[in-house]
Amino acid sequence: MAAPSPGPREGFELGTLAGPAFAWLRRSLGLAEEDYQAALGPGGPYLQFLSTSKSKASFFLSHDQRFFLKTQGRREVQVLLAHLPRYVQHLQRHPHSLLARLLGVHSLRVNRGKKTYFIVMQSVFYPAGRISERYDIKGCEVSRWVDPAPEGSPLVLVLKDLNFQGKTINLGPQRSWFLRQMELDTTFLRELNVLDYSLLMAFQYLHEDERGPGSSLIFRTARSVQGAQSPEESAAQNRRLLPDAPNALHILDGPEQRYFLGVVDLATVYGLRKRLEHLWKTLRYPGRTFSTVSPARYARRLCQWVEAHTE
């Protein structure tokens, strides 16, 4: 599965898993191989950041913040690779899916030590220059609060569900597209028996000259959608007009704000361990909502959250 290649220095061994499939995914995004290799190479520093996740994973951004790297356990990597053919098929059927675009899975061994696995994906929060708020949404309440950073702090936090109370996502005419795409993507994840994924969201206020009069910016700066053969096919694939912006697949423009939206963490299956965790949490948190529920309930609840918090 892994094709080892020489590391940048002696004692490093870098492996690439499912290389041809991920090469196709990168090509489908118009990502040049030299750009991808440069992002993984030793030439530029990585940006490590603090996460509010309960997992023991480490998180990094490439120096240009275009690519997101996350360490993964061997089991999660096996799940991702097992689901990869269906993931590719889903993206072919729905080219404007909100699922995070996986770009590669790699292993790293240092000085013949234990292998570390990591995934590379396109960052949902790119470009990040004017982003004002970031959220990780699961549609539940237990452990879904983060203490905000003190005013004036340089720390960038990703907030959670309870931090979002009293707020809405104002998408205007694009709301119906968003609800439909969330339904398509969560149905796909339910069929894979996957749960515990998140909807990442970020907000960026549009400047006055970026707002279309009386309508969403999307209709003013939209670029042509390539590949659809007919209006019927386009509707079946749930295509939309994409904004003329980097990372367009994860961007929707409302009347006043630009929203960065993407579904991440696709490798947790509802096996015996998660079923036992569900029973324990049912006893531990009676009457409260938590993340470890059946994939069908998880998908339905997240879609209900999105419907209740959009306009």
Automatic annotation (TrEMBL):
Transmembrane segments: none annotated. It comes from the Eukaryota. GO terms for molecular function: 1-phosphatidylinositol-4-phosphate 5-kinase activity; ATP binding. One of its GO terms (biological process) is regulation of signal transduction. InterPro entries: PInositol-4-P-4/5-kinase_C_sf, PInositol-4-P-4/5-kinase_core, PInositol-4-P-5-kinase_N, PInositol-4/5-P-5/4-kinase. Keywords: ATP-binding, Kinase, Nucleotide-binding, Transferase. Residues 1-310 form the PIPK domain. The keyword Nucleotide-binding applies. The keyword Glycoprotein does not apply. It holds the Pfam family PIP5K. GO terms for cellular component: plasma membrane. PANTHER family: PHOSPHATIDYLINOSITOL 4-PHOSPHATE 5-KINASE-LIKE PROTEIN 1 (PTHR23086:SF46), PHOSPHATIDYLINOSITOL-4-PHOSPHATE 5-KINASE (PTHR23086). This is PIP5KL1 isoform 3. It comes from Pongo abelii (Sumatran orangutan).
